[in-house]
Amino acid sequence: MSRLIKFGMMAALAAIALVPLAPRHARAAEMTPAQQKRQMFRRGAQLWPIYCNTCHNARPGGEFSPTEWNMIIMHMRTQANLPPQDANAILEYLKASR
Ligand code: HEC
Questions:
Q1: CB 95 within 8 Å of CB 66
Q2: Can you say whether residue 58 is alpha, beta or left, with left for phi > 0 and alpha for psi between -120 and 50 degrees?
Q3: Looking at ligand 1, which atom is closest to the CA of residue 52?
Q4: Which long-range contacts (CB under 8 A, 24 or more apart) does 59-65 make?
Q5: For residue 87, how far is its CA from the centre of ligand 1 (angstroms)?
Q6: Which letter does DSSP use for residue 64 in this model?
Q7: Residue nearest to atom 41 of ligand 1 (CA)
Q8: Most buried of 17, 19, 84, 89 (most Cβ within 10 A)?
Q9: What residues contact residue 80 under an 8 Å CB cut-off, 6+ apart?
């Protein structure tokens, strides 16, 4: 085996071994409130079409005021049996996407 190939393999192995050490995702505790909100928004944007399209057309954020959404989500999270974190993420998305 050539030295170059050996070196390449060693480098690849070292890179694989170091992957778990790299801070790829900041943990929730290390995020600023703005970053947490941003992450909730993105999660909500992904969940909204999945959950909220099941029984009726998913209603867009602009259709209701933030106060109305608070009430609607309280009602719909029991209808859809949503985990609280998912319901909060969808709520954040709906309020912010108006
Ligand atoms: C298990 C079925 C089900 C799921 C899932 C569901 N809904 Fe509903 N939704 C209903 C039903 C039934 C109604 C109408 C009767 C009622 O209000 O209970 C309704 C009504 C609504 C309305 C109408 C309120 C109005 O006054 O016009 C909105 C807005 C709404 N849902 C939003 C959502 C959102 C957002 C989600 C996702 C988190 C969601 N729904 C998920 C069953 C569901």
A1: yes
A2: beta
A3: 37
A4: 60/94, 60/97, 61/93, 61/94, 61/95, 61/96, 61/97, 61/98, 62/97, 62/98, 64/94
A5: 13
A6: S
A7: 52
A8: 89
A9: 51, 52, 54, 55
Measured between alpha carbons, how far is 10 from 26 in angstroms, rounded to an integer? 28
Structure tokens at 49: 């079409």
Give residue 19's pLDDT: 57
pLDDT in tens, 47-87: 999 999 999 999 999 999 999 999 999 999 999 999 999 99
pTM of the model: 0.77
Residues at CB less than 6 angstroms from ligand 1: 51-52, 54-56, 59, 72, 76, 79-80, 82, 90
By most ligand atoms within 8 Å of CB, the mutation choice from 55, 64, 67, 70 for ligand 1 is 55
User: Would you list the domain boundaries of the chain?
Assistant: 30-96
